[in-house]
Amino acid sequence: MIEYQLFEAGFCRHCERMTLKNGRLKQCEYPAICALIKHPKQGYILFDTGYSNRFYELTQKFPFSLYRRLTPVTLKKSLKQQLEEKNIQASEIKAIVISHFHADHIGGLNDFPNAQFFCHLDAINNISNKKGIKALLQGFLPGLLPKDFYERLVILKNEIQLESNLAPFTRGFDLFDDKHLIAIPLPGHAKGQIGLYFKSAPFHDPEQNTQEVFLVADSCWHQEAFKEFVFPSNVTYLIHDNKEAYQQTIRNLHHLFNNNKTIDIIPSHCQHIRTRILEKQ
């Protein structure tokens, strides 16, 4: 049985109307949500890491100072600190599934010295050798990668056919060849972006009935996007990798939501998910 718990590791601020066409014309907080997963054989695994103080250090000078100005960040506790409060040491984390390489998803990679890094080949190819403005345009801060990042890197290879309960998604990657953790491509927002699907029970109640969980990263910013089939403002396509692919991914999530209401679809910056995290603290 897989167990999991969601965490918020910092947040940034944007106008809600930017990320949801029918949203409010007011500044909202967008949490950087990540997940701690306990695999029965592999041990502790993370899905993304949120921010860390290293983000502040790396965005002091131009051009990366533009990043923190465009997305003002607040970090109260890093994921590492929150895990330590639960008596889980950074050294116990055996793997980190990287949804994509934007700074709010990889900010804490340096905090976990024993973790392997799982990601899609297209994501790696997109950030390799990028520096300065070219890196910034991809939302990528090269300094967030550990010095031994490429020695610990695992490229997703074990591609499988997905079961019908995940339609219209058809292909994924079985991380450990045991069908416990399935990475699923979610194109459009960033090259090589992946989500993570598993069947699980929460840490606080492992005897609870098994729940299907789909962590969908930045395939959308709000659950309303796939529930009500609402796209973001057209301005946001300046930062997305591919508009058509992004909209198709939301369309696929909308169909999945309508076809299988048992799956808990979790975007990485959704205020509803943040509320759920706060209620369980």
Automatic annotation (TrEMBL):
Cofactor(s) annotated in UniProt: Zn(2+)
Segments passing through the bilayer: none
Keyword Hydrolase: yes
Zinc keyword on record: yes
Protein name according to UniProt: Zn-dependent hydrolase GumP
Lineage: Bacteria, Pseudomonadati, Pseudomonadota, Gammaproteobacteria, Legionellales
Residues of the Metallo-beta-lactamase domain: 31-269
An example Gene Ontology molecular-function term: metal ion binding
Family: Belongs to the metallo-beta-lactamase superfamily.
Keyword annotations from UniProtKB, A to Z: Hydrolase, Metal-binding, Zinc
